């Protein structure tokens, strides 16, 4: 019996060691799997997160159906080229192309640009649309007569100056969600987050010129 007990005692650690080894192997596999998943998620999510880390961020917030209709309303009786600054998944560009515009979108997120191109092809308007991966601050918008902007309050003053310097007087700028700080809108439609403001640049420039002509009050 003593010999048998010693034999059993020797077997138990060995079995525990084998079980521990199996558990260790499974742990390594799980760790590797989780690590691989995190790396994949990081690769996919980085283009979405990176813009939000910039000094002036332009996060992706899809346009609502009401916003798209309000933008199209502001484009009635308009012609020429159109650009969507921060075009996201391309829905504004595609909707404008369906109305006959040669429409272009600029978007920093490459995943959204590729998806926009796919949507344009799927909807049969790929020949009337173009999507570029680009930082809006490094692009000149001088050749566009219709500009759509989905911005955030922090960027609107700087963008207002950029568009004022680059666009021709016949341009119309359509702002969604947030208005420009200095320009007076010529047309407004929608409510809440669906509000859209339209600015005719020649009138905005005229307003600015008149504001400079105010004569100082004289003492009586």
Automatic annotation (TrEMBL):
Annotated transmembrane regions: 26-45
The keyword Ligase is annotated on this UniProt entry: no
Signal peptide span: none
Subcellular location: Mitochondrion membrane
Keyword terms of this UniProt record: Membrane, Methyltransferase, Mitochondrion, S-adenosyl-L-methionine, Transferase, Transmembrane, Transmembrane helix
InterPro entries: FAM173A/B, SAM-dependent_MTases_sf
One GO cellular component, as annotated: mitochondrial membrane
An MF annotation (GO) of this entry: protein-lysine N-methyltransferase activity
Region (Disordered) location: 1-23
Biological process, per Gene Ontology: methylation; positive regulation of sensory perception of pain; regulation of mitochondrial ATP synthesis coupled proton transport
Topology class, membrane: Single-pass membrane protein
Homology family: Belongs to the ANT/ATPSC lysine N-methyltransferase family.
Name used for this protein in its record: ATP synthase subunit C lysine N-methyltransferase
Provenance organism: Dicrurus megarhynchus
């Amino acid at each position: 019996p003593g010999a048998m007990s010693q034999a059993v005692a020797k077997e138990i650690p060995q079995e525990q060691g084998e079980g521990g080894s199996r558990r260790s192997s499974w742990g390594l596999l799980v760790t590797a799997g989780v690590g691989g998943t995190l790396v994949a998620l990081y690769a996919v999510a980085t283009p979405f997160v990176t813009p939000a880390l910039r000094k002036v961020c332009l996060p992706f917030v899809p346009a609502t159906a009401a916003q798209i209709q309000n933008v199209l309303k502001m484009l009635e009786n308009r012609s020429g080229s159109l650009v969507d600054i921060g075009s996201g998944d391309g829905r504004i560009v595609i909707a404008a192309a369906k109305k006959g515009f040669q429409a272009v979108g600029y978007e920093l997120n490459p995943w959204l640009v590729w998806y926009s191109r796919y949507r344009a092809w799927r909807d049969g308007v790929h020949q009337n649309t173009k999507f570029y991966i680009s930082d809006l601050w490094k692009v000149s918008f001088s050749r566009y007569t219709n500009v759509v902007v989905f911005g955030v309050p922090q960027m609107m003053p700087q963008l207002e100056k950029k568009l004022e310097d680059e666009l021709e007087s016949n341009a119309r700028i359509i702002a969604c969600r947030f208005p420009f700080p200095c320009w007076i809108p010529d047309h407004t439609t929608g409510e809440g987050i669906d509000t859209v403001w339209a600015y005719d640049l020649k009138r905005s420039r005229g307003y600015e010129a008149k504001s400079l002509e105010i004569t100082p009050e004289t003492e009586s």
